[in-house]
Amino acid sequence: MDVAMGDSETKPSAEHNTVAIADYAAFWERLSFFVQLALRSDLQDTHPLCLYSHEELYRSIYWTCWRGLQGRLFEDLKNVIRETLEFLNGQLQSCQDLDDFIMKFAAILSNHLRAIDVLGSIFAYLDNTYINGVLNDNLRHVMVDSFMQTILKESERQLMYIFKKIFENPNANKIKDIVRDLFKMSSDSIYLNPLLFESVIIGIRLPPNVEDLRMKYRQLDAKYNIMTNPKCSLSKRTASAIDEDDCKASSSKRRQLGP
Q1: What is the distance between the alpha carbons of residues 54 and 70, in angstroms, rounded to a whole number?
Q2: Are 79 and 142 in contact (CB under 8 A)?
Q3: How high is the pLDDT of residue 222?
Q4: Nearest in space to 129 (alpha carbons), one of 3, 38, 253
Q5: Is residue 169 within 8 Å of 245, Cβ to Cβ?
Q6: Backbone angles phi, psi at 133, to 5 degrees
Q7: Which of 12, 50, 109, 125 is the Cys-Cys partner for 16 at CB 3.0 to 4.6 Å?
Q8: Phi, psi of 170, rounded to the nearest 5 degrees
Q9: Count of CB atoms within 10 A of residue 218's CB?
Q10: Please, what are the averages of pLDDT over each run of 10 residues along the chain (259 residues)?
């Protein structure tokens, strides 16, 4: 999909760069909305991704890079990814009910996997020539790392609690989907519950650092003390919800959890 540049083409002049920078603001406003759209499934009902020409977006990004603005474009891209994930994390952490948290996390995770493919396609030129060629990184790693730091790290206590209680939860199949999607995103995710990942994912190929990840799980398990004292692992609102839930469990087996 790369657009070939002819040998006769020269790099932009200083005057051309001034015009390019002026044009960039309008270009980025449109592009940043598409990036947010790809990251937020709740917006896609009214703004389907299929209505946007991915080829046109790719070409626009190509010309932006050709004009020497690839560094600025990459920084802006990282910022909008981080800001959008922070917004989604705020929604996630506001969930009061365990089932709501599970469904919301599953939706954010599965959509992020799709967004990695979508954005990886339209930003392929920037990825190949700048992120990889100059920074020795890649866009997929950037997006996975942003998710791990912004969403997963903030939710690891809740997830470890949920994973330990999986067979008591009516949404066990959805939880298994979360396990599979987390591993698809990053095999390092098994630190949340190595035994569960190994039992859910058929033919799992464990990462080379699996022993380090098992050690991390044991350390976090001791830190959060989930099984012996769930109040220690979660926020005050979550602990209150667990107190109420424990009272109801004897009669209804319903589970409630706050962020």
Answers
A1: 18
A2: no
A3: 92
A4: 3
A5: no
A6: -70, -35
A7: 12
A8: -65, -15
A9: 12
A10: 40 48 85 97 93 94 94 98 98 94 98 98 98 98 98 96 92 96 98 97 96 97 68 45 45 42
97, burial (CB in 10 Å: exposed 0-12, middle 13-18, buried 19+): middle
Query: By C-alpha distance, which of 143, 220, 221 is closest to 186?
Result: 143
Measured distance CA(36)–CA(38) in Å, rounded: 5
Spatial CA neighbour of 144 closest among 134, 152, 133, 156? 152
Neighbours of 105 (CB within 10 A): 25
Compute the half-sphere exposure of residue 29: CA atoms within 13 Å on the CB side of its CA.
5
- pLDDT score of 218: 95
What does residue 21 show for φ and ψ, rounded to 5 degrees? -65, -40
| Residues with Cβ within 8 Å of residue 15, at least 6 apart in sequence | none
> Can you read off the two tokens belonging to residue 99?
């089932």
